[in-house]
Design brief:
- The structure is a single chain.
- The protein is of the alpha+beta class.
- The strands form 4 sheets. A 5-stranded mixed β-sheet has the order 3-8-9-10-11, with helices on both faces.
- It has 5 helices and 11 strands.
């Protein structure tokens, strides 16, 4: 297998080349094997902004999760009970290599108003419309400077502590209805990786 500049990637050098390869569009499969997406229509390379399909994004999420699990397996182990925010931050770092046209942020609690001024991100969780809730989703794929490119919003739960799942699902529906995100994803992570997912659009 060859890197974009023609350098051969394999053997003992492969693992040490992981970070730059991911940045160049490679997907980690195991310690010594990488797959390069070469077709401009395949996820994350040459996609027009907002043209990502749910299938594109699902592939990115799965590959990013596999990558993080291969590199940091402790994050997925119930006995360590590491906070989901830590996993979200690592997953975000892997995902942003595929969404070059967007900002990928964790717990981003702002949104632009009609004048482009950043104000608290709010949705109507409270039945009183005069006092909407301020929220900070686990991961969002968007453009910070406007509200016209809200591609994806993700809420994450670990499978062994998912008792607030219904609250996350309620939020995801409101993000789509009120903030016009194209896709919402409830993502549940277990020791083997993704254990449950639910899409909203």
């Amino acid at each position: 297998m060859h890197a974009p500049d023609g350098e051969n990637i394999g053997g003992a050098d492969a693992a040490s080349s992981l970070a730059p390869l991911v940045m160049q569009g490679y997907v980690f499969k195991n310690t010594l094997q990488f797959v390069h997406q070469t077709n401009a229509n395949i996820v994350g390379i040459g996609k027009a902004i907002m043209d990502y399909t749910k299938e594109d994004i699902e592939t990115i999420i799965e590959q990013s999760c596999d990558f993080v699990k291969d590199q940091q397996p402790m994050l997925f182990m119930e006995k360590h009970d590491i906070h989901e925010r830590t996993l979200a931050a690592e997953l975000k770092s892997a995902m942003e290599n595929w969404f070059k046209e967007f900002h990928v942020n964790c717990e981003y609690n702002r949104m632009p108003d009609e004048n482009g001024v950043q104000i608290p991100k709010r949705i109507g969780l409270d039945p009183d419309p005069e006092d909407p809730s301020s929220v900070y989703p686990d991961i969002i794929v968007h453009r910070q400077e406007d509200g016209k490119h809200n591609l994806l919003i993700v809420e994450i739960k670990m499978s062994w502590k998912n008792h607030k799942k219904e609250k996350d699902i309620e939020k995801l529906n409101l993000y789509i209805q009120e903030l016009k995100y194209k896709y919402g994803l409830y993502l549940e992570i277990g020791e083997e990786g993704i254990s449950d997912r639910e899409w909203f659009e």
